[in-house]
Amino acid sequence: MDVPVVPPLDGSLLTIPEILDFHDKRNPDKPWFFYPSNDVPSEVASVTYGAMAEATHRIAHRVRPNREGADGQVVAILTHTDTVLYSALIIGIMRAGLTPYPMSPRNSSQGVCHMLETVGCTRIVGHAATAGLIREVQSEMQSKGIAVRFEEMPGFTEALSELARDARGVTIAPYPKSPEAVDVMKSALYIHSSGSTGFPKSVPFTYRRLLQWIQHNVFGGTNVRYGAMALPTFHAMGFMMQLVHPLATGTAVAVYTPQDPAPPVVAQPQTVYEVSKLCKCTAVLVPPSFIEAWSHSQEIVDYLKTLDVVIFGGGPLALATGNRLTEQGVRLLSGYGSTEIGNPSMVWDGYPRRSYPVDPDWMYFRAPSGARNVRWVPQGDGKHELIIIETDDYEIAMHNVPGERAFATSDLFEPHPTKPDLWRIVGRKDDVIILSTGEKIVPAHQEAYIIASPLVAGCVMFGREREQPGILVEPHLAHAIDRHDEVALAAFRNEIWARVEEANAAAPAFAKIFKEMILVTDLDKPLPRAAKSTVIRKQALEVYKDEIRQLYETITQSTNNEGIAPPRSWDVAGLELWLTEQAQSLVSHDKPIARGVDLFQQGFDSLSATFFRNRIIGALRSSDDLPVRQAAQQVSANLVFDHPTIAQLAAALLGIIDPSSAATASSPTDAVRTLIAKYTADIPVARAGKGVTRSEDDERVVLLTGSTGNIGSHILAYLLAEPRVARIYTLNRPSASAEPRAREKAAFRERGLPQDALDDPRLVSLAGEVTLDKFGLDDAQYAEVLGGVTHVIHNAWTVNFNLALQSFEDQIAGVRRLVDVAAASERPVQLLVTSSVSVANGWPASKGPVPEQLLPDPEVAAGQGYGSSKYVVEHILSAAREKGVHATAVRMGQACGPKATGAWGTTEWMPILTKTSVALGCLPALCGPVDWIPLDAVGEAYIDWALARDELPFVVNVVHPRPTTWEVVLRGLRAELGERFGVVPVQQWLAKLEEHAQDPSAEVLVQMPALKIIGFFRALANSSKSQDTSRAALSEGPFDLTFETAALLRSSPSMRAIQPMVEDNARAWVRFWSAKEFIVQL
Q: Known InterPro entries for this protein (predicted)?
């Protein structure tokens, strides 16, 4: 192989024209571009470095004859032409001492004007294909008093044809060089960003930075031939691969055949494959969508296997597709870079060869180990933002980090779990969707699964400040539909549903996309795209904001079941079959839905239940049978919660359709007694005996469940701060989206707790559940935990007041499993199980305060599944205590945000009341004592119990022993919100809320989230008449209860020392909610 002479990259050649002149002298006959011949398409033609050099001289003469005028003027290139001519045009303008600014013709006229103004450009080079856009730009600029000159660019034959040179018999005279030395800090070129978050940014490239790009990006040396035809030359990656790489190495790249004056070939997966194969490329670089398309053709996959590497960038590739290709032997590499920072990765180093093994970590790129210019900033949830720092040998174009010459990319990455310096991009900070629940979705990988469908041209997830996400999908033209055609819409949703299910399987449960939440675009409103053809998220959501709002209102207010066929028959068999099919489609797993098992133990949550109920009502309404249609009006809001198995649902629906078939229901107290009997049977006697006395020197080893919630994270923080605790095991439910430690860090970050504390070597974060055999741990882990643990703090529990008692049975069984473990231990194990004051919802106020002892009558907890489940738990612990197990029920009241941080989760009733009050313009005057307990005080109390030497009480009521008043809370809220928020009687506040309760819009529901739990606030208003709101946070039961705290104070020194809450507590809550953008004051 005739190897080209490589130019020196030591700075002796400072400009791109100088490097091209080197090739003109040393490699004049070496090809720069390969492409299919125009004359014989099955053969390969080329353009040499010598021909390109001469073309740039011609163009320089054309754009600046005799070097007239000032150096450095910016010349915008707004054209739609071939790569070869475009490359010559850029370098020709540079040779003329001017500053080229290649621009995408896909930009709007407003975007082009913005870019022209930011760099002071008044001159555009273009041609007929973009003349219309240029005229719009000239007109808009003229209206601002700025004249913009348009010049027709030279054509391919004029600039580049070697035949033209032969015809003339002479070569073009060299363009005169500047007599002045190059100032390396002046701009040699501008390239614009994609404009995905607004107008494109003009990114300057100084001569120094351009030289550094060339020095840093010798992609595989001189032995590689890239297929680069999929990239536009005006894009940073296109410029890098089509100009920078060849000039740095003297090698050639394959491109499409020049078509000028006709429009250029539009890049398509099939033609990129064909040209790459014809031109004998050893590597290709393409957007992920091309790889998705290729993966469906075995012929193309077989070709890809022969390449050294297939590089993708500009977006994520669906994991399933990448894994499928690498399993077949395709070498994939993930590229990363941007116009602002260049290419900080080492993806090109150690260029892959066909003899290299396929890399299973293809989705990661390698960051330079210990590099001075790379910083990873943790985001608290296992993700990191990349920041690039400018150094002497690595200049960046823009700085956006205060006080530093650095650029924060806003790109989010996850590190490889075991291999250092490998990072996988997962999205952007500004793409993160924050649901109204506070959960955060990084949508890139779900979108990647869906766009992998050959039916889909583009998609964007949405759902900010909503309860559930949706996705906006643009079909490919060949599959375009009228989205108002319900039959066609249902068919399209069904066709892409397999891809959506793949996306859901790879995402956390809260990010699940339901079929009803697929919004299809209009033919006349295509998704806006950036120059690199990616969808511009912000603009797309703005274009479809009305349709998105309407979709949420439809979901909220109706039970339309487009595309959902009703049952084949309305008997037990037909209903159970249909209900099972629907339930299966609403969970994110393939495990078959069991007929007799609680749906909430099979992956259902409140959102799934809502969609399930809507589908049931829609099916009833679509029936031709009058009694069936009428039954739709009798379906209660809690249908699925009250009848949480398929068998129960079928029976309940039959009972509504035909009341004579309804079975007699057992009483709620019977269900409570049944579970108590079941889970207190045969509790073993504790092997360690009843007595317990520990010295201060005894080792404390704690197992904590539920360490990522409000209470659990504060307990964990205080355990980590206590040096007398020797080891801490945390047990949290397995998650596909993040490892346990990452979720704990996210919880700490969310609540203002010290994240560094989680790096303590005493902490072991485990994934498992007490409901599983051996907690879901392997034998070694399980033996380690059981062999050392002295205290179990069981805090994990589903907090959902809609669930029926039986939906908690697996969690109740988990408590019994913990009792058995404690009983079997050879040394005393203290069980501290979080209960709830809701076990006393029905306690008669006439009997005085609720005692710190077992409540014998199940009627006090009946009527609500959550409270009843905790009542059952207390009876299990009582029975265990009789057998010598050291068990304590921590009967938790309302926990509120600490004074220091104010961190109070935004899904609870008090922040919801406050946000709604801001929208209503007034706050409610509630009555009675406020005995809420700050979360930091809860954490301190658990430390007291962990360090206690003597036996703990059986029950402690964790409410504030020194209550404050609602007036104090109101003064704190108003001090932070503003005195303009008046205080009105709670009934008046409720009346103002009720005005919006009839068919509220989606926007109103966001502003007034109290409408979603208006029944709770109605009960709150009624309870306020009895002059007590201390129970307001806990449930929808009575709020006129007080609680004994003698055992609490006896067992906890910190509780004995606690001071009443003051106005500053409430002020801290508001500051926290405002910082989370939950409360936005106008």
A: ACP-like_sf, Adenylate-forming_Reductase, AMP-binding_CS, AMP-dep_synth/lig_dom, ANL_N_sf, FAR_NAD-bd, KR_dom, NAD(P)-bd_dom_sf
